[in-house]
Amino acid sequence: MSSTRKRILVTGGAGFLGSHLCERLVAEGSDVLCVDNYFTGRKDNVASLLGKPNFEAMRHDICFPLYVEVDEIYNLACPASPIHYQHDPVQTTKTSVSGAINMLGLAKRLRAKIFQASTSEVYGDPTVHPQTEDYRGNVNPIGPRACYDEGKRCAETLFFDYHRQHKLRIRVARIFNTYGPRMHPNDGRVVSNFIVQALKGDPITLYGDGSQTRAFCYVDDLLEGWIRLMAAPDDVTGPINIGNPVETTVAELAHKVIELTGSRSKIERRPLPVDDPTQRCPDISRAKSLLGWEPKVPLETGLKKTIEYFDRLLGSNAAPVETRPVA
Ligand SMILES: NC(=O)c1ccc[n+]([C@@H]2O[C@H](COP(=O)([O-])OP(=O)(O)OC[C@H]3O[C@@H](n4cnc5c(N)ncnc54)[C@H](O)[C@@H]3O)[C@@H](O)[C@H]2O)c1
Hints:
Elements: E1 7-11, H1 16-27, E2 31-36, E3 55-59, E4 72-75, H2 82-85, H3 89-110, E5 113-119, H4 146-166, E6 170-175, E7 178-179, H5 190-200, E8 204-207, E9 213-215, E10 217-218, H6 219-231, E11 240-242, E12 247-249, H7 250-261, E13 267-270, H8 285-291, H9 299-316
Parallel strand pairs: 1-2, 1-4, 2-3, 4-5, 5-6, 6-11, 7-10, 8-13
Antiparallel strand pairs: 9-12
This protein binds nicotinamide-adenine-dinucleotide (NAD).
């Protein structure tokens, strides 16, 4: 039976950001196909959507071609945290590069609009602050983060070549640090790490002296930016920074988490990992002027929602919190 609903493919749809995106698109009435190989994603993340008539989940690795009929594609598939993407670095680059080629090929065949979840990591350890989209970055091509950073950079190249060569309608968002419910509890990302440690009463591990800054965006704000970008006129291809420009030092974050959880955890210092950026903050002027977008959720509000989620997850004992890469 034919339908007038927009058919949308979300790769990496069972992950942290993907599951929120699927939820939002389903609520808006689109027909959503979630594709995931469950490397870091979890079926639990989309369990509440499974009974909906306009949602479908499919196990598939985007390193292999996919033949489906859709109108739009959001390409999110790729492990996002260093612990996960460094577990199998070759597979990480393959996912970014071969995955992009497969999804762009699909979009070309269907004349579908396609979105790429790129990253602030394309700026590497930036020498320019805050980062504007025309900053070319400072990435170490042979370091342990390169599988992710260079993979994402190459994916951007592919998106823009498909756009120039095949007139494909593309949208490239450079996503900065995002947090919220359904982050993976063991992925080593600073927000989830601190919250889980605080809730368990374990020491809060602070890398370096804690003066390195991050700019944390709440997931709902991020998605609003993505949806606006996708709906923007076709000449708005990006790349466009989507993130929160309010800088917080990692030490401040640790203290905030301790305060909001009422934890007795103590702070424990560890050496800074290799190639860890010291400062990261988006310039979002482009998103403001082209999309009329800026983040609205204050850090404290977002942290409270995230803490509630982890509190339930850890308290329930039901969720399988280990995934292959951590084992
Ligand atoms: N969360 C952030 O702060 C952030 C920042 C910058 C960029 N991003 C990008 O956003 C996207 C989503 O990130 P996330 O935080 O939700 O991470 P996540 O690890 O929770 O989600 C990634 C999803 O992709 C799936 N996946 C991985 N390889 C795959 C493959 N080969 N085939 C099919 N599925 C595969 C995983 O199983 C998972 O469900 C990623 O592309 C990431 O690079 C996220």
